[in-house]
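Subject: for your reference before the review

Hello V.,

The reviewers asked for a structural picture of the protein, and I figured it would be easier to keep everything in one thread rather than splitting it across files. Below is the amino acid sequence we used in the manuscript, unchanged from the supplementary table.
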Amino acid sequence: MYQEFCGLRELPFELTANPRYLFLTGRQREALSVLQYGLVSAKSLTLLVGEAGTGKTTLLHAALDSDRCRDVQAVYLNNPMLSGADFVALLALRFDLGPAASVSKSVLLEQLEARLLERRAAGRVNALVVDEAQSLSTGLLEEIRLLANIETPDGKLLPLVLAGQPELATRLEQPELRQLKQRVALRCELVPFALDDTAAYIASRIRTAGGAPAKLFTQEAVTLIHHRSSGIPRTVNVVCDNALVGAMAQRTLPVDRALVEEVCGDLRLTGAATVEPHAAVSPSQTAAIPEPEAVDHNGDSEDTAPSRQPSKFGFRLAWRRPAPLRSTRIATE
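And here is what came back from the structure prediction:
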């Protein structure tokens, strides 16, 4: 589409969890470390909560594909709208159990425990990761709780990770799910971006795609994108993608505030109250933006600080290098 017009090698704002575009704020880096620790240490249940579009799926895959989790074999479930029978059959298939396990829960549990013990003896950690877990039925949540009981005197054989929207946390407060809540050993939460994170996120994706951020968006445009998207990364991607299509149609760059207003109107995005141009970031605010750490492919901090570039955004934008992952699995949230 607009790659050639914008000087890009590829489309930077696709809605896939492409590991090359991994961008970590401090909050996300903390959540990544919690997920890695929960998997490697075989904690009974790790809970990841965040609004739709805040990057939960991307973070799950970043954890599973990191070097820290190289000895973790995870069954990843991203469609929890299953019946009890479907759930049993899926577990039997994903854990490579016999055909009898797919039709009998008792056979499944017997063979699953034997398989987990075998793999643990070989130095491997097996895990069950469920995305969009807020959509699980109460019955399936109870089945998952019972899987957490598979253990040895030394530890859990099947660590669990549940990722979902805030409704998941609300459901865990229900009396009938109190036993599941008691098994939550670790918990982390993703929140929408702050303004400087939105700006750095947009710039990071443009740089990864081979472009120059300041040539594509003005400061006023970025500020308005942040407010209308409420700092939700997925919505930021949608607005930026549509804005660059509009810029190509109008044969004009950089994208300005007026074009973003038009795009947000078409997308029916109101977000936060409209802000005046230049009002979002004053010189004193710009100076106060903390220097974020660079991120290596494990999600760890590096000793060297990332480069920071002044631009028309009006922020001293910080680029975080994309974090390459060991696998190329890509999933949408």
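For the response letter, the relevant points are probably these. The chain has 14 helices and nine strands. The chain has two domains: 3-21+193-318, 26-190.

Happy to draft the paragraph if you're swamped.

O.
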